[in-house]
Design goal:
688 residues, Rossmann fold, Dimethylsulfoxide Reductase, domain 2, 4 domains, seven-stranded mixed β-sheet, six-stranded mixed beta barrel, binds iron/sulfur cluster, 4 iron, 4 sulfur cluster binding
């Protein structure tokens, strides 16, 4: 045993699954992972990790790992050399730009890739190709958070560090199921409740924390804005507001107060289905707490009016003076993927440069132009859904998809497949021959998070190091190396040859990150942004003296409730909500190829017993689900976790094709898809 233990190598890295950012010690031996230990000194996890971070590494050894580039020939995808694959890509890029201009090329970057990789991809698209057509998958989850928090407070990140949230005496957890989707945070929130904090849960489903809640509000899917306006109405009506804070540090109260006249609890109850007394009780708990905190998830953002949801939720913290002060712990989004925050921080967005300068702002653009030594395009690029539309209409000639399985995870999946089939050159960079890779013309073998060097930014804005515990298999390369190789094949030199150099250069483009470096992270472990100065710590709690808005004030938003894109009707009488399960992660490409498959072997359609009886289905029966957009066949799980009329399903197994059902409706501000509200019917479903 002594000899075997002596041969173990330990590598400190950051979990590559959810946005909690658990620090992990990965023990390797003979080129394989022997064990993963949660780091006792991890700033967020403190010795804990969930089933994904600890045990979902079997995918590394999967015989299905891609180890060579593939190129589409008449007979299908065939292995080729890196040189041949890169030549093909460079020829395609040159032809597209030469014949149709730089905007005929687009890239979808990834919230799973490191900061340095996201930085390099957007730099390549802007400085080499000459287009802002670069987006990342945060478009599909938390883009309304970035827009809503920026409008309310001036910065696109959560307002407080998680250790502050842990001092809260009242937790308002909205549209999130952290016990399954962010288990380490879920456990810490529960500990806080067991220590005496009051808990209000707002979620249509009886999610894990709901059983511990003082009040559980279960609004009809798509009615969040009415709920938040109703809570704000009670805060105002019962004078549970901080008048001094509102006088000196916020604006917008008169317009909001006028709007809230229409959101008395009885009317809100009619819209949302939430009993009026429960709404009042929830508002009183939040409004009377000394140190309230709001934690929310995709149940707030993935709606037709997701940005309005974030704004009206932020209203509650502003009315209470519970943001930017010691009396409360603000508004804090739980990020789904490991690097959702970082991918956007690095400027993998069609309208924003690294550090969130607008591409149309000459000052922000000039700073990047000076560092990169070239002129940059000034008009916004395409968002992900617009890229697919451009491909279908023939305007897009090259689509480069980095580490995303868009056919499995993006909504209205049949239209996504049509887009990939219509685009002359699709490049997929992935660990496996994913659904998206199967439709690609060039497939490049990629490295996983356990094989990479760089940094991630977690949900409370902490940069943390990612270190390679293993080498990628065969000829697989990191996304960082691939972007450099494609640039070189195009005759361009992107500079910043190492991830450390890339982060250093990013700090020159975006001063908000200028104090953060690999060397400093190696010494200090984690550094939150903003951190403009290498000699000073980053800022955990934001907005202490003034908000980051141009006028320094927090902005209340008067937003009316507007109905979701789809509602139940005679043809489609049930509402489908999609989300995640405990053992799996998004498209499931990694977790399905790990031991976790034994814990959860299929997507299941949750259905209330009354609906199950009405449709004559029992646990385990397979049913055909139809929406206006597509169909899927799923086994059912009968459960009272849902209210009658609602269904829930995850999308971890491509064979279930859950996103063939979801619609093209999207947030009116950010284009974040409305995953949480799709009207469906079961085969044989009788009219209501
Ligand atoms: Fe931590 Fe999230 Fe990884 Fe689980 S998946 S170990 S909660 S970072």
């Amino acid at each position: 045993i002594g000899t075997r233990r002596a041969s173990l190598t330990s590598t400190r890295t950051t979990c590559g699954y959810c946005g909690v950012g658990c620090a992990l010690d990965v023990l390797t031996r003979d080129g394989d992972v022997a064990a993963v230990r949660p780091a006792a000194d991890g700033p967020v996890n403190r010795g804990h990790a969930c089933v994904k971070g600890r045990f979902s590494h079997g995918f590394l050894r999967s015989p299905e790992r891609l180890t060579r580039p593939l190129l589409r020939r008449r007979s299908g995808l065939e292995p080729v050399s890196w040189g041949e694959a890169l030549d093909h890509i460079a020829r395609g890029l040159r032809a597209a730009v030469g014949e149709a201009g730089p905007d005929a090329v687009a890239a979808i970057s990834s919230a799973r890739a490191t900061n340095e990789e996201n930085y390099l991809i957007q730099k390549f698209m802007r400085a080499v190709i000459g287009t802002n057509n670069v987006d990342n998958c945060s478009r599909l989850c938390h883009s309304p958070s970035a827009a809503g928090l920026t409008a309310a407070f001036g910065l696109p990140g959560g307002t407080d560090g998680f250790e502050d949230v842990e001092r809260a005496d009242c937790l308002l957890v909205v549209g999130a199921n952290p016990v399954e989707a962010h288990p380490v945070v879920g456990a810490r929130l529960l500990q806080q409740v067991l220590k005496g904090a009051r808990l209000v849960v707002v979620d249509p489903r009886a999610v894990g924390l709901a059983g511990h809640a003082d009040v559980h509000l279960r609004p009809r899917p798509g009615t969040n804005v009415a709920v938040f306006n109703g809570l704000a109405h009670v805060l105002l009506a019962e004078n549970l507001i901080d008048e001094e804070f509102l006088r000196h540090r916020a604006d917008g109260l008169p317009a909001l107060a006028a709007l809230l006249d229409d959101y008395a609890p009885d009317r809100v109850s009619t819209i949302t289905g939430v009993p009026a007394p429960d709404l009042v009780a929830a508002a009183r708990l939040y409004g009377r707490a000394e140190r309230p905190a709001i934690v929310y998830g995709l149940g707030v953002t993935e709606h037709l009016h997701g940005t309005d949801g974030v704004r009206t939720l932020a209203n509650l913290a502003i009315l209470r003076g519970a943001v930017g002060t010691e009396r409360g712990f603000g508004v804090n989004p739980l990020r789904g993927q490991n690097n959702v925050q970082g991918a956007s921080d690095m400027g993998a967005l069609p309208d924003l440069l690294p550090g969130y300068g607008r591409v149309g702002d000459p000052v922000a653009r000039a700073r990047a132009e000076q560092v990169w030594g070239t002129r940059l395009p000034a008009h916004d690029g395409l968002r992900i859904a617009q890229m697919f539309a451009a491909a279908r209409s023939g305007d897009l000639r090259v689509l480069w998809v980095v580490g995303e399985d868009v056919c499995a995870t993006d909504p209205d999946a049949d239209r996504v497949v049509e887009a990939l089939e219509a685009c002359p050159l699709v490049i997929s960079q992935d660990l496996f021959l994913s659904e998206t890779a199967r439709h690609a013309d060039v497939v490049l073998p990629a490295a996983s998070w356990l094989e990479k060097d760089g940094t991630f930014v977690n949900f409370d804005r902490r940069f943390q190091r990612v270190r390679p515990a293993l080498a990628p298999p065969g000829e697989a390369r990191t996304d960082f190396a691939v972007v450099h190789a494609i640039a070189a094949a195009c005759g361009a030199d992107l500079g910043c040859p190492t991830p450390a150099a890339a982060l250093a250069e990013c700090g020159r483009v975006a001063p908000v990150f200028a104090g953060i470096s690999h060397q400093r992270l190696d010494r200090e472990g984690a550094i939150p942004w903003p951190c403009p100065d290498p000699g000073r710590p980053g800022q955990v709690k934001l907005h202490r003296d003034r908000f980051a808005t141009p006028d320094g004030l927090a902005h209340l938003a008067a937003r009316p409730y507007l109905p979701p894109g789809e509602s139940a009707d005679d043809d489609y009488p049930l509402i489908l909500i999609t989300g995640r399960r405990w053992a799996h992660y998004n498209s499931g490409n990694m977790t399905r190829r790990s031991g976790n498959i034994r814990l959860d072997a299929a997507d299941r359609l949750d259905i209330h017993p009354a609906d199950a009886a009405r449709h004559g289905v029992r646990d385990g029966d397979r049913v055909l689900v139809q929406s206006r957009h597509g169909r899927a066949t799923l086994p059912v799980r009968v459960t009272e976790e849902l209210l009658p009329g609602q269904l829930f399903c995850a999308f971890h197994f491509p064979s279930s094709r859950v996103n063939a059902l979801t619609s093209g409706h999207a947030d009116t501000v950010t284009s974040c898809p409305e995953y949480k509200v799709t009207a469906v019917r079961l085969r044989g479903s009788p009219p209501l």
